[in-house]
């Protein structure tokens, strides 16, 4: 689906209605990538293509949403835009800075749903963790988002709007004072289940008229949607991360139910096909370490074998990179974080086997913004939230109706 075929977005609650066409009939320009915006200017407004470029810069470089403030556009064009278009950004419902510099936003998506976005500053880089869906349908057992159930996919505007909100907050200036250097599609949701909108939003992230990020600085993380990994390879050129968490099918299926559909051997074959298209770059395999579940030497050896086989197939020792993530607990979970000694021993075993392995430092856990802890506000359509709350109440955790 091309971006210009997408339906205009409806109004966010509490936003000032604009004069002219009803809000629902206006095209939200945040919903369009460069190609879609050019088409809108040429076909709908009867304007020159370069006008689309000017507006794109106003929106994404200068964070301007009012056409009146786009001062290099003529009065007539501004009036035309006012009548046919709008720039509708997500509303910040709540934001919270962490002691370690991490910053979390709760963004209202509509009357009943909200998602979380997290910025993580580090030495010389600033990474934004972006959500792709309201909740998630995949039900990975160790994930806080999964307990919330699922409501819907986010639109392009709602995905790129997260980058817009963070960039404005940070005073980010693409190509000059860039504080936002990386985006990871690792927030709420499985991005490959919202393929068209995620690919369009990632194209704005990488566009010079958008956020100007290099391909390798935009990473999509998947739980292993095999056919869509192939499609991503055909249509995009971003970095790929895979949530692996176990190298063996039985254990992985118990942690990531999607593995029953796409087992490890099929997943690794899809990773190989993806990596062949992007020679010279590595694929990151994420592995959340849970005490007594997947953190033992036997698991590390299985993982090392799998990673070495991948490296051999790619004829590159560094084709795979492993990110070890100490589990971040959340209320009601049955998992625990692995002890530090086990984490180090796991890493050493992999390093000794020649596998590039890093341990991800936990960031933002004082504001529940650490990896696997994101939890927005989901009008659950899967009944999973109710089941989880019931289980929690039975364990004496929280009120079942909370
Ligand atoms: S880990 Fe990712 S894919 Fe799995 S349930 Fe959580 S958000 Fe969904």
TrEMBL record:
Principal EC category: transferase
Domain Radical SAM core, first and last residues per copy: 122-366
GO biological-process terms attached to the record: rRNA base methylation; tRNA methylation
Cofactor note: Binds 1 [4Fe-4S] cluster. The cluster is coordinated with 3 cysteines and an exchangeable S-adenosyl-L-methionine.
Keyword terms, alphabetized: 4Fe-4S, Cytoplasm, Disulfide bond, Iron, Iron-sulfur, Metal-binding, Methyltransferase, rRNA processing, S-adenosyl-L-methionine, Transferase, tRNA processing
Active site: 116 (proton acceptor), 371 (s-methylcysteine intermediate)
Residues annotated as binding [4Fe-4S] cluster: 136, 140, 143
UniProt xrefs under SUPFAM superfamilies: Radical SAM enzymes (SSF102114)
Gene Ontology cellular-component terms listed: cytoplasm
Gene3D superfamilies per UniProt: 1.10.150.530, Aldolase class I
Region annotated Disordered, chain positions: 1-23
Binding, S-adenosyl-L-methionine: 189-190, 221, 243-245, 328
PROSITE patterns: RADICAL_SAM
InterPro entries associated with the record: Aldolase_TIM, Methyltransferase_A, RlmN_N, RNA_MTrfase_RlmN, rRNA_lsu_MTrfase_RlmN/Cfr, rSAM, rSAM_sf
Function text: Specifically methylates position 2 of adenine 2503 in 23S rRNA and position 2 of adenine 37 in tRNAs. m2A2503 modification seems to play a crucial role in the proofreading step occurring at the peptidyl transferase center and thus would serve to optimize ribosomal fidelity.
NCBIfam families named in the record: rRNA_mod_RlmN
Family statement: Belongs to the radical SAM superfamily. RlmN family.
Protein name: Dual-specificity RNA methyltransferase RlmN
Organism: Luteimonas salinisoli
């Amino acid at each position: 689906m091309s971006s210009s075929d997408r339906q205009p977005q409806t109004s966010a609650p509490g936003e000032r209605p604009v004069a002219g066409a009803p809000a629902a009939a206006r095209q939200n320009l945040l919903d369009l990538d460069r190609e879609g915006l050019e088409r809108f200017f040429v076909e709908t407004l009867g304007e020159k293509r370069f006008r689309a470029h000017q507006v794109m810069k106003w929106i994404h470089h200068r964070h301007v949403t009012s056409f009146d403030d786009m001062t290099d556009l003529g009065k007539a064009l501004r009036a035309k835009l006012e009548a046919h278009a709008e720039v509708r950004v997500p509303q910040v419902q709540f934001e919270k800075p962490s002691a370690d510099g991490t910053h979390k936003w709760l963004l209202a998506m509509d009357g009943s749903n909200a998602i979380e976005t997290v910025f993580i500053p580090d030495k010389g880089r600033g990474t934004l963790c972006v959500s792709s869906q309201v909740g998630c349908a995949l039900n990975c057992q160790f994930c806080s988002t999964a307990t919330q159930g699922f409501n819907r996919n986010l639109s392009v505007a709602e995905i790129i709007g997260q980058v817009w909100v963070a960039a404005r907050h940070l005073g980010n200036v693409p190509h000059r004072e860039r504080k936002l250097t990386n985006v990871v599609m690792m927030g709420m949701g499985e991005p490959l289940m919202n393929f068209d909108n995620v690919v369009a939003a990632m194209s704005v992230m990488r566009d010079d008229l958008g956020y100007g990020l290099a391909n390798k600085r935009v990473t999509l993380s998947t739980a292993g949607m095999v056919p869509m990994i192939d499609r991503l390879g055909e249509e995009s050129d971003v970095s790929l991360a895979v949530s692996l968490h176990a190298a063996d099918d039985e254990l992985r299926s118990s942690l990531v139910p999607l593995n029953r559909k796409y087992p490890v051997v099929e997943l690794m074959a899809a990773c190989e096909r993806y990596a062949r298209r992007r020679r010279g770059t590595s694929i990151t395999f994420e592995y959340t370490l849970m005490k007594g579940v997947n953190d033992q030497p036997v698991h590390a050896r299985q993982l090392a074998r799998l990673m070495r086989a991948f490296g051999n197939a790619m004829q590159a020792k560094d084709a795979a990179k492993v990110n070890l993530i100490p589990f971040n607990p959340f209320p009601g979970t049955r998992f625990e974080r692995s002890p530090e000694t086990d984490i180090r021993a796991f890493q050493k075993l992999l390093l000794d086997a020649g596998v590039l392995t890093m341990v991800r430092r936990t960031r933002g856990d004082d504001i529940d913004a650490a990896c696997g802890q994101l939890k927005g506000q989901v009008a659950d359509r899967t009944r999973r939230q109710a089941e989880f709350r019931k289980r929690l109440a039975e364990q004496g955790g929280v009120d079942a109706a909370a």
